Amino acid sequence: MNMENGGKKITKIKLYSCGYCQNDLGIVFHGHKKDVRKFPALVVYLHHRKFGNILFDTGYSELVYQNGVVSLIYNTLNKTFVKPEEIIDVRLKNDGISPDSVKYIILSHAHPDHIGALKKFSNYRLITTKDVLMKMKEKKTLSLTFKNMIPHGKILVKAVKPTDKTNIFSEFFNEVYDIFNDGSVIGVRLDGHAEGQMGIYLPEYKIFFAADACWGGDILDEVKNMYPLPRLIQNDFRKYSDTVTALQKFSAVHPEIKIIYSHGGMEEKVYE
Predict the structure, then answer these.
(1) Can you tell me the distance from the alpha carbon of 132 to that of 51, in angstroms, rounded to the nearest whole number?
(2) CATH number at residue 160
(3) Rounded Cα gap, residues 228 and 232, in angstroms
(4) Would you call 142 exposed, middle or buried from its count of C-beta atoms within 10 A (0-12, 13-18, 19+)?
(5) What is the pLDDT of residue 266?
(6) Taking all residues of the chain, what is their mean pLDDT, rounded to a whole number?
């Protein structure tokens, strides 16, 4: 047995910030003072000993500006910034990783800051929930699915199925998935922000990437104070609130697990 890296199945993790949007939390939460923040678009690169190069989400790309009037409205309400050198395919190339070598892309949900660079890749299998796949096929603007970001032609897809194995997430969340059937990447359904949204947990590193279940760990308690308009942006605010509560309970029981939100101001970092 190869004991390099302690015999881990996931041999490397790298976090990339691929563009960002900017918003004032003072107009999102009642009682929150003016607080203009940058919300980075997180992309997680994984190297799996057996399955090779994997991405969790793809961040923004230039396509966020190129979807006609939809882009104009989106960038008016949610000002977005991404430079060519920040897009994930370029970031990977700069690290000596060919985009063609990415064999799996795990998608949390189909919003433009998560599917923005899908077209930069080819010959990969897309892994997500059945509900997210449906949103991509519908290509509905009200679901914040940009038509120009959906890859043309046939792509290999895999809709994850809930595992019947009891694990640390089973008590708190409705559906849990063993994505590669080897315990290396555990998917967790995080409904609310988007129907079928999925986060991933990496047991070997005790890191839980919770996607857009909340915009940051420091504002979980403020979700109940969200103004009506930003509530409407959520697919289902009641489920969004329930997911936040579940995350708080989970974190209290498992403080050893680091929870990273896609827009939570994470630092770019490597884990090996």
Answers:
(1) 23
(2) 3.60.15.10
(3) 6
(4) exposed
(5) 77
(6) 94
